[in-house]
Design goal:
The complex is a heterodimer of chains A (about 290) and B (about 280). Chain A is mainly α and about 290 residues long. Chain A contains 13 helices and no strands. The two termini of chain A are about 30 Å apart. Chains A and B meet through helix 1, helix 4, helix 5, helix 8 and helix 10 of A and helix 1, helix 4, helix 5, helix 6 and helix 7 of B.
Chain lengths: ~290, ~280
């Protein structure tokens, strides 16, 4: 009984997740080795690794991989650095702290599609956008953000969404710091930089791991922001792997190539997962 | 040690700095809020108009043009049902791993998380084909199933860490007193981990409400959620900014306000108990 019960309780979650993983995976593997274009339903049959070859030699492929990594790296870096800075800023009491917290957390709850459209139209529009107005005010030529710096624009949108998340977690972590230790360090005349270097930053290590882990999971598959703003363009300038597969599947109707791409995404995700398991394992085991 | 540091220059500086950062980050949302109450002409005025007579016209038009309430209802149904369903599947699993320690618990947890690592797009073609074959395309049921499964790993993790906080002795004591499994779960476990349940449910509600990838690809007019509605504004006709803002505001307001009230629980849960 005592052995059966936990297994019984685990079964629904494990079974559904297993199906959720294995059924699409097997189908994807099957689709990836046949000719399967929704526009040419009469042309089918086994074609071996041709889809993979097509996907990997696609000129967009290299760009998409680079963009995925750039997006991931920049957003994580931006949110961790600024998140820590803001968390340190609001860690001590000040007037209106509750309201400031509400304002700071808000972007996290905004739907990615709304986030993207808002930045695209109201912030980054080269004529009417707020940024253009600010640029014009200082006598500079307004920038056409989404056309001239598409990937950067996406990074801004995604960072804006995830910065509150990072801030909140760092803030929570700072609240748990040993106050006596801090007081003692201050009494002994430690400068703010010394406190930062030897007390705050080491204490935040664990929460940095948590932030990186969660962001990695969600940022590998950024989609809505690209779909609603640049459509991956101009050219492939803002196409990531997720969007490239989507383009193959639903815009080129080539399910075979899309499936080959999907398997590549699985590979990429697994590499990230291995990296993650090491990092999280180290940090969460304590 | 009381705070003797109140009203020092550092305090003033911190107040100003924190407010400046907060307002800067909130600015795009504040701007959206203003624009929603402008006329189309005011919305694109140069220089921008800060003082104007607010109008509700945009909200009426959004409802009339695309039946906002229909999409909002789909959002409510899909996110609430998938959250409840997810909690019902995740809680027993989390309970089993937290209180009956097995050798492979850590592996199972990591494996679950790894299913979340695979970009949704990787499963798009098969799921689309399956939905099509089973006539579930553009139904609420399809979205509910997909939302539940894609949130499940996170739910198990969060509940697992919430349960880990509860000392095993309390549950053992209940069992000694002859509590059945059901009594143990509802009378002891649930009250003690209410915060964990709340934060897990909250996060999944937010994630499902904001989910765009599956809603865009598996649903359209019938089962479309607010994310689908908003994406339809990305076409050139979406250049009516005031209406776009009104529609956006109506799409995000419920969940943002909800988020304001629940941020404390959310943070606790989000960190998987790793950050206290």
């Amino acid at each position: 009984m005592n052995r059966l019960l936990p297994r019984l309780l685990l079964t629904p979650a494990v079974a559904t997740l297993f199906l959720w993983m294995i059924v699409p995976l097997v189908m994807t593997i099957y689709f990836s080795v046949i000719r399967y274009n929704l526009m040419q339903p009469d042309q089918t049959g086994f074609i071996g690794l041709e889809n993979f070859e097509y996907f990997v030699t696609d000129p967009s492929f290299g760009t998409a991989v680079m963009n995925t990594l750039l997006l991931l790296g920049s957003v994580i870096l931006i949110t961790v650095v600024f998140g820590i800075a803001i968390a340190l800023l609001i860690n001590e009491p000040f007037a209106g702290r509750g309201l400031v917290r509400v304002l700071l957390i808000s972007p996290f709850f905004v739907m990615p599609t709304v986030n993207a459209l808002m930045w695209k139209n109201m912030m980054m529009n080269p004529i009417y956008g707020v940024l253009a107005q600010v640029w014009a005010f200082f006598g500079a030529t307004p920038v056409d953000w989404l056309t001239d710096h598409p990937l950067f624009s996406i990074i801004v949108m995604v960072s804006w969404q995830w910065l509150p998340f990072a801030t909140l977690i760092f803030m929570t972590s700072l609240q748990s710091m040993n106050r006596e230790q801090l007081e003692a360090a201050r009494m002994d005349g430690a400068t703010y930089w010394q406190q930062l270097r030897y007390l705050y930053i080491p204490h935040l290590g664990r929460s940095v791991a948590v932030v990186v882990m969660i962001e990695l999971i969600f940022l590998l598959s950024v989609f809505a922001e690209i779909y609603t703003t640049t459509g991956g363009g101009p050219g492939d300038a803002s196409t990531n792997v997720a969007f490239l597969i989507f383009k193959q599947a639903l815009l080129n109707f080539d399910a075979g190539v899309a499936s080959a791409g999907a398997l590549f995404a699985v590979l990429l995700a697994n590499i990230a997962a291995i990296f993650l398991i090491r990092m999280v394992g180290k940090n969460l085991d304590k | 040690m009381a705070r003797q540091s109140t009203y020092t220059p550092a305090y003033a500086l911190r107040t100003v700095g924190a407010w400046a950062v907060a307002l800067l980050l909130f600015f795009p949302l504040g701007w959206l809020l203003l624009t929603a109450f402008k006329t189309e002409l005011q919305a694109i005025a140069i220089p921008p108009e800060l003082f104007f007579t607010p109008t509700l016209e945009n909200f009426h038009e959004v409802q009339e043009r695309s039946d906002y309430l229909h999409y909002a209802w789909n959002s409510v149904v899909t996110s609430v049902v998938s959250t409840v369903l997810g909690l019902a599947i995740a809680a027993p699993a989390a309970y089993a791993m937290a209180f009956f320690k097995g050798k492979r618990d850590k592996d199972i947890l990591m494996w679950m998380l790894s299913t979340k690592m695979m970009p949704a797009v990787g499963a798009l073609v098969p799921i689309y084909v399956l939905a099509q074959k089973s006539h579930l395309l553009d139904t609420q049921l399809a979205l509910i199933i997909v939302f539940t499964l894609s949130n499940l790993p996170i739910m198990v993790w969060m509940l697992y860490s919430a349960f880990k906080e509860i000392p095993n002795e309390i549950l053992e004591a209940a069992r000694m007193d002859g509590a059945t499994l059901w009594q143990e779960a509802t009378k002891v476990l649930l009250p003690l981990s209410l915060g964990g349940f709340a934060s897990t449910g909250l996060l999944c509600l937010v994630l499902s409400w904001n989910e765009a990838f599956w809603s865009l690809n598996l649903s359209s007019a019938q089962a479309g959620t607010l994310a689908t509605l908003i994406a339809s504004y990305s076409s050139p006709e979406g250049l009516f900014w005031a209406k776009l803002s009104a529609a956006s505001l109506m799409a995000i307001a419920p969940i943002v306000i909800f988020g304001w009230f629940s941020q404390k629980q959310l943070v606790q849960g989000l960190t998987f108990g790793a950050v206290k």
